[in-house]
Write a structure and sequence with these properties.
The protein is of the alpha+beta class. The chain is built from twelve helices and 33 strands. Helices cover about 20% and strands about 25% of the residues.
Length: about 650
């Protein structure tokens, strides 16, 4: 036998021995020990201290950095949601590529040494658009979401039939990092209280994942929420924040789970923001005090959030009464929106040290930030001038206005157009008497800005014009409701508009695809200035500019933050990437996070801004500023309305 053949034989034998050794070794197990009131991992008592991270809110290039920082804080697990609408934006068309590569995220967590608590929904809340449910479910107008509604269940079964087989190899007993899987989410906070729905989901998850995996539920820490949120076969856990009565909350869990581990699945390190409210800040002392008390009780704790991240694009959610959340999901978490280390991070690590051994070695530092300075933007076109280039399908005509869903559009903007049926020489009320503007509408007559309508706030305004004048209403989806009974949140003009006492008819609707138009660079510098605008309100207008980051300089590009001094409200893209909404006129968020991954050193970086209301321009020239410091806590007090701060989602009902 040749030397090569002998080497191959020896190699094959060694591989066979390794495989045989793996097969005869003790199986990997993770289970609930009801007698000892703990989890068991590979037969040994186990307690997790976990942190929430949403891969969908963090650019993929930064997953490793954020996960390493979580590991070095002493966490032995992470918790993440799977947003259904992020992966199936159209029925049957799935996207798990790039920033949506869930399996790559799970592999990376395991490589770093972190276990995973997976929350695949189908509903997730998460301050995410429609709580993670896809808007196309609303094509059935009377659908009862999160229930045994046959059309809803059919869609859920199709989605889970795709997702759950993908994650099955990543279950702990199959060699992966996933130790527990949540079924639904905070169902006790929903009006339906459909136990057959929970039973159906339990059977569905068991069918795809098997009988060994620990399935669980999460609900608020009181009997009220657990009544409809818990069901036999799913381990019931609770959630609550700093300052809560920890004993009472765990007693509520014990009411439905007399034995087994104590679990707080969402211990709030901070709290969510809304446009027009103060930025939520939770004291480090309050967090560490409650965390210490729970760990002394032997409880398993997941810190929500450990890093919040960013609602890029149009992905933010909203609460009721209608209050949309901003682009930043900083959450006052231990790691900032940009992944920076905070005082809270180190204080939490010091608490964990008292109960668990934490990894040795240096913690990855905060990523460097760079202020690229002031950039000049030039006016290109108004949205109305560019309308044909922005509309990705033929306009739709209808006697009465159609919703976004009926127009087969989920997010962004739709332009509704009709004409004034008679002369309005005197100011005449244009109204949405049934509060049917969802969510914010920019009204113009013959191209001249006339005013703004806003859901639940401004339902009537006055217009003037001649019979036959063009009436344009640009409607913005500001984010679908993500929590409570209102998640079936239709967008657009969802009821008729009236002019005086007359219902307006004869609508033409344009679905807008701004991303496509901007990525193709079809916007051009305006030749005419168009009709004169009011001093305080202008027709929605695009502005563009560029800047160069020198190549050959070490460590560039770096993360940054973009500030829009004296701009009002709109949307911003860099190199075609939709950074999100800006609204410094209302606050609290002033700057937007700019990850270095979207910046270039080989070509100029292109900025596009859609200002919806009023830009601070002189002769069509405006500026934006890149800074190395975020501003997410400045609120215009005209809009500020206090929100209850009891760190419980029941306060959002």
């Amino acid at each position: 036998m040749s030397g090569v053949s002998m080497s191959m034989l020896i190699g094959n034998l060694l591989l066979l021995l390794m495989l045989c050794g793996a097969s005869i070794g003790a199986p990997r197990t993770f289970s609930v020990d009801y007698q000892k009131n703990c989890f068991r991992k590979d037969g040994q008592p186990f307690r997790y201290i976990s942190g929430s991270i949403h891969y969908n809110r963090i650019p993929r290039v930064y997953w490793k950095d954020r996960l390493l920082k979580m590991y070095m804080a002493g966490l032995n697990a992470i918790q993440t949601y799977v947003p259904w609408n992020y992966h199936e934006e159209s029925p049957g068309l799935y996207d798990f590529s790039g920033d949506r590569d869930l399996l790559a995220f799970l592999k990376l967590a395991q490589e770093i040494g972190l276990l995973v608590i997976l929350r695949p929904g189908p509903y997730i809340c998460a301050e995410w658009e429609m709580g993670g449910l896809p808007a196309w479910l609303l094509r059935k107008k009377d659908i009862v979401l999160r229930s045994t509604d046959k059309d809803y269940l059919s869609a859920v079964h199709s989605w889970m039939g795709k997702l759950l087989p993908m994650i099955k190899p990543f279950l702990y007993q199959n060699g992966g990092p996933i130790i527990t899987v949540q079924v639904e989410n905070e169902y006790g906070s929903y009006f339906a209280c459909d136990y057959n729905y929970l039973r159906n989901l339990t059977q569905l998850f068991r069918k795809h994942l098997g009988d060994e995996v620990v399935l669980f539920t999460t609900d608020g820490g009181s009997a009220f929420f657990l009544k409809c949120g818990s069901i036999q076969g799913l381990y019931a856990t609770v959630d609550f924040g700093p300052g809560a009565n920890i004993t009472a909350a765990f007693e509520a869990q014990r009411h439905v789970e007399p034995n087994g581990p104590l679990v707080n699945s969402e211990f709030y390190t901070g709290w969510l923001d809304h446009w027009g409210s103060h930025h939520s800040v939770v004291s480090t002392d309050a967090v560490t005090k409650s965390l210490t008390e729970m760990l002394e009780k032997g409880a398993n704790v997941n810190l929500y959030m450990f890093i919040g991240g960013t609602n890029f694009g149009y992905w933010n959610g909203a609460n009721e009464p209608y209050s949309p959340q901003p682009t930043s999901y900083d959450y006052d978490a231990p790691l900032t929106e940009a992944g920076d280390l905070t005082k809270k991070y180190f204080a939490i690590r010091d608490v964990i040290k008292k109960f668990h051994k934490i990894p040795e070695g240096p913690t990855p530092p905060s990523t460097p930030k760079f202020g690229y300075g002031t950039i000049t933007l030039q006016k290109t076109e108004t949205l109305l001038e560019a309308l044909k280039k922005l509309s990705y399908s033929d306009p739709v005509k209808s006697l009465y206005p159609l919703t976004f869903t009926e127009l087969n559009q989920a997010r962004g903007f739709v332009l509704y157009r009709t004409t004034l049926p008679y002369n309005c020489s005197n100011p005449t009320p244009l109204s949405s008497p049934l509060n049917g503007v969802h969510d914010r509408a920019y009204v113009s007559v013959d191209g001249v800005a006339a005013g703004i309508l806003e859901r639940s706030k401004i339902i009537t305004m006055n217009v003037t014009g001649k019979a036959g004048s063009r009436l344009d209403i640009l409607v913005e989806n500001m984010g679908r409701i993500n929590y409570g009974k209102g998640i079936n949140d239709f967008k657009g003009l969802v009821s008729n508009m009236t002019l005086g006492a007359d219902v307006l008819t004869g609508w033409t609707m344009y679905s807008l695809n701004l991303e496509q138009a901007i990525s193709k660079g079809v916007l051009k510098k305006s030749i005419s200035s168009g009709p004169p605008q009011t001093p305080t309100l202008s027709s929605p207008t695009f502005y563009e500019g560029s800047f160069v980051i020198p190549g050959g300089i070490p460590d560039l590009p770096q993360d940054s933050f973009i500030k829009l001094p004296n701009w009002t409200k709109g949307q911003i893209w860099i190199n075609g990437f939709n950074l999100g909404r800006y609204w410094p006129a209302r606050g609290p968020q002033v700057t937007l996070f700019v990850p270095s991954s979207i910046l270039k050193t080989t070509t100029p970086n292109h900025i596009t801004v859609l200002e919806l209301e009023s830009a601070p321009c002189t002769n069509g020239t405006c500026t934006v500023e890149f800074t190395d410091t975020p501003i997410i806590g400045t609120t215009h007090l005209d809009y500020y309305k206090p929100i209850s701060r009891l760190f419980s989602k029941k306060n959002l009902l």
